Amino acid sequence: MTDLDIPAASGAARLFCPFPADFLWGAATAAYQVEGAWDEDGRTPSVWDTFSRRSGAIAFDQNGDVATDHYHRYKEDVALMKRLGLQSYRFSVSWSRIFPDAGGVPNPKGLDFYKRLVDELRAADIQPWMTLFHWDLPQWTEDRFGGWESRDCARVFADYAGYMAAQLGDRLSGVFTINEFMCFLDKGYVDTGELFAPGKNVCPRLLNQARHHAVYGHGLAVQAIRASGPQDLKVGLAENIPNIVPILETPEHIAATREALRELSGMYLTPIFEGRYHPGYLESAGADAPVFTDDEMAAIASPIDFVGLNLYAPTYVRHDPSTARGWSTVENGPGYPKMDMPWLAVGPSIMYWGPRMVAETWNAPEIYITENGCANPDRPNASNEIQDVGRVMYLQEHLIHLHRAADEGYPVKGYFVWSLMDNFEWAFGYTKRFGICYVNYETLERTPKLSAEFYSGVIRRNAVGG
């Protein structure tokens, strides 16, 4: 595989952006989106198995029963990662493979799959980074106590986290407790037009309480991992923060952006880093605010070693003295460029401002970009090549801005492209492709796209050019 030749911009000297020598390059997937084998080896349904069987919930009534069959093809997929030069792989665990029911008895066949996967990765010199919860809540938790609406969900999640840390912690490079609170809560418990599993439509009070139980579950899981796993195992989370960008790079707009981050993250990252919900969040919730104790807030603020940022599309912020909070957001406008998703507006500077704002606001010790990528209407040409030039340009421009963050000393330690391969894209089913490797959903053959060649060259050079 050869490097993609990137021409110099406007005839000027070529921009060459080297990353720190220890920068980590990887790719990410999620269990329900790639594994398949939905009822094999003792696995029981997750809320996504149930939701995808609701008529009209998923495009063309598709589901993740087979997905990309990663469960059976993981060796092939690890070999593909090795071929591309990946240094790390972020995968998630299907919780209901490990604990198939409420009895609390682990399923050895489910655990064995992840042991085999991790061993295969390590043998290929690819670091395994494990996510414990990427939205596929076991259906039994929903049936037994209403999922995240109950504190019991936080408790059983911590039990699961401690077990996985004890069983696999010595083979892992890092553990993410939870991926993207906003998506599985704000889209799973309220019908905003793009409904996710479990497909509820609850009142604001129950949504806020579910939010609290989820961040509480994260905190309990951090404590359980530290108690059960190796002392040097890194623990953090991955969150799709409001991707705030100052409308102009001036002190007043930057300060406004920092405050916007705290308030817009007021129910998720703010309590995790500050030990309290943002006053603006509680004030706006009023009588519907979550009920919590001091002990629960202390658990939520359990120290973490890193934070993962899932960065896709920007939200622009400006200093606005006409508002009580001193800032407001700015619409992108109808002509703003987008990729092949209704929400995916292109704004590469998120890769600089996201890490910078999180570092400056909360003094995060380490930051990883745990998701970044785009959907593209990819199709093979007559030579079976996938020339996804749009994705190449998307990744190139975003990585140039990420380089700026690293070059200015913000603690960005690694980057996981989303995604390794095309897969089940939640409510969109198989109609949207985010992979750097193409998947033929009839044969399940994987084919690296032009973006894979580009990304492989970035890893090999540890640099991006433009």
TrEMBL record:
Its EC number is 3.2.1.21. It is an enzyme of class 3 (hydrolase). Pfam families: Glyco_hydro_1 (PF00232). PROSITE patterns: GLYCOSYL_HYDROL_F1_2. GO terms for biological process: cellulose catabolic process. Keywords: Carbohydrate metabolism, Cellulose degradation, Glycosidase, Hydrolase, Polysaccharide degradation. It catalyses: Hydrolysis of terminal, non-reducing beta-D-glucosyl residues with release of beta-D-glucose. GO terms for cellular component: cytosol. PANTHER family: GLYCOSYL HYDROLASE, LP05116P. Belongs to the glycosyl hydrolase 1 family. This is Beta-glucosidase. It comes from Capsulimonas corticalis. The lineage of its organism: Bacteria, Bacillati, Armatimonadota, Armatimonadia, Capsulimonadales.
